[in-house]
């Protein structure tokens, strides 16, 4: 509804409210409220980021889950050059804007910062969300999140609103946060990244340093945990989840294994994974993710040739077990970040062994999930110690 129409409605409001029927007043209030809502929602957006075709699958499911719960805000996805052209076209079917971010070719201070601190590549790409000044307010969501209910009320919050991180609650988790795009803030973040870096090597450490007063200044900027429910928290504090989990609005699939890395049986609607996987403590969330993927994302991937076997539609071959091949940016082989994950049918392949960063290995040790038979074996640890003692 346009601005001219809103003005006309306000002009006619007295006449409508003077009608004998009480319904007229209610109708008028609804129309005026909806007129304001439609105007304000156009300059607000949910924003996510994908750096390869694997995470693009997560972004597609996230976008469709927002639409499924009738969001009125625009959907924006930031992509890097590693996302294939076919996947970009698939993203355009779900998102209102698909924006290419190439820090190496940006020609601004982000490029200079990357040259100084190359380990912050993905972080600098994520910071680009502050440059989306065509929007007055945004909610950033990582591509490994899933929306379970309408969350448009987040736009009533101020910058920087976020939920506590389960590992260190005095820090916020940067998987879901409310922010206000600003060139000034963007440049300040780049300066901080260049001068100090990030205490955790990623965007969360940098953002917590920049918004350092979050923990103590304004409790209204602390989002309830149900807006960023960590799968790891379900695993570590199951009683609380049983008491409050039914109110969850967003689930965040933290950890190495993402929903698209599991094996899914469409006949039994069951999911297979490694033992002691925190995400499997409550597999219903994974089932919700896969339901959206199989019903809405898979046909789009087929349309753009991202699934080679056109017979892979689960409605046709519902008796087959399939899995999405692991091809995220952490694979051992170089230059696979642009590769397309294919849908593998029939026999379940052995899971690929991903490269694990030092930060991820630290998280696994803290969770009691050290790779004692592999990288964390006694021989490997002894060999590493020997290099320092020589």
What does the main sheet amount to?
A: 6 strands, mixed
Number of helices: 13
Total beta strand runs: 13
Look at the structure and give the mean pLDDT: 77
- Uncertain segments are 1-24, 26-38, 310-353
* Order of strands across the main sheet: 3-2-1-4-7-6
CATH superfamily of the domain at 44-304: Spore Coat Polysaccharide Biosynthesis Protein SpsA, Chain A
Distance between the termini: 74 Å
CATH class category of the domain at 44-304: Alpha Beta
Q: What structural class do helix, strand and pairing data support?
A: alpha/beta
Organism: Bos mutus (wild yak)
Catalytic activity: [1,4-alpha-D-glucosyl](n)-L-tyrosyl-[glycogenin] + UDP-alpha-D-glucose = [1,4-alpha-D-glucosyl](n+1)-L-tyrosyl-[glycogenin] + UDP + H(+); L-tyrosyl-[glycogenin] + UDP-alpha-D-glucose = alpha-D-glucosyl-L-tyrosyl-[glycogenin] + UDP + H(+)
Pathway: Glycan biosynthesis; glycogen biosynthesis
InterPro entries: Glyco_trans_8 (IPR002495), GNT1/Glycosyltrans_8 (IPR050587), Nucleotide-diphossugar_trans (IPR029044)
């Amino acid at each position: 509804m346009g601005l001219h129409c809103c003005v006309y409605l306000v002009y006619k409001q007295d006449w409508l409210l003077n009608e004998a029927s009480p319904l007229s007043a209610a109708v008028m209030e609804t129309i005026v409220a909806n007129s304001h809502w439609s105007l304000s929602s156009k300059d607000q957006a949910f924003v996510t980021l994908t750096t390869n075709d694997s995470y693009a699958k997560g972004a597609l499911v996230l976008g469709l889950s927002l639409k499924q719960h009738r969001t009125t805000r625009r959907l924006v996805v930031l992509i890097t050059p590693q996302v294939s052209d076919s996947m970009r076209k698939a993203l355009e079917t779900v998102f209102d804007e698909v924006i290419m971010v190439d820090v190496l070719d940006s020609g601004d201070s982000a490029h200079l910062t990357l040259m100084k601190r190359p380990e912050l590549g993905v972080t600098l790409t994520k910071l680009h969300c502050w440059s989306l000044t065509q929007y007055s307010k945004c909610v950033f969501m990582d591509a490994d999140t899933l929306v379970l209910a309408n969350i448009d009320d987040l736009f009533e919050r101020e910058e920087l609103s976020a939920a506590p991180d389960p590992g260190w609650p005095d820090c916020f988790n940067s998987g879901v946060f409310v922010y206000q795009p600003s060139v000034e803030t963007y440049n300040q973040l780049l300066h901080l990244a260049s001068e100090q870096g990030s205490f955790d090597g990623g965007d969360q450490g940098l953002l917590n340093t920049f918004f350092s007063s979050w923990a103590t200044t304004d409790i209204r900027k602390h989002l309830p945990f149900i807006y960023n429910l960590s799968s790891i928290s379900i695993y570590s504090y199951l009683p609380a989840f049983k008491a409050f989990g039914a109110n969850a609005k967003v689930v965040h699939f933290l950890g190495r294994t993402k929903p698209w890395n599991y094996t899914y049986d469409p006949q039994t609607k069951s999911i297979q994974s490694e033992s002691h996987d925190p995400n499997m403590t409550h597999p219903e969330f994974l089932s919700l993710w896969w339901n959206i993927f199989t019903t809405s994302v898979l046909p789009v991937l087929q349309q753009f040739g991202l699934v080679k076997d056109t017979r892979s539609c689960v409605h046709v071959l519902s008796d087959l077990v399939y899995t999405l091949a692991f091809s995220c940016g952490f694979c051992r082989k170089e230059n696979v970040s642009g590769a397309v994950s294919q849908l593998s049918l029939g026999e379940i392949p052995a899971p690929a062994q991903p490269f694990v960063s030092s930060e991820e290995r630290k998280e696994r040790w803290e969770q009691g999930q050290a790779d004692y038979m592999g990288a964390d074996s006694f021989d490997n640890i002894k060999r590493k110690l020997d290099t320092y003692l020589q």
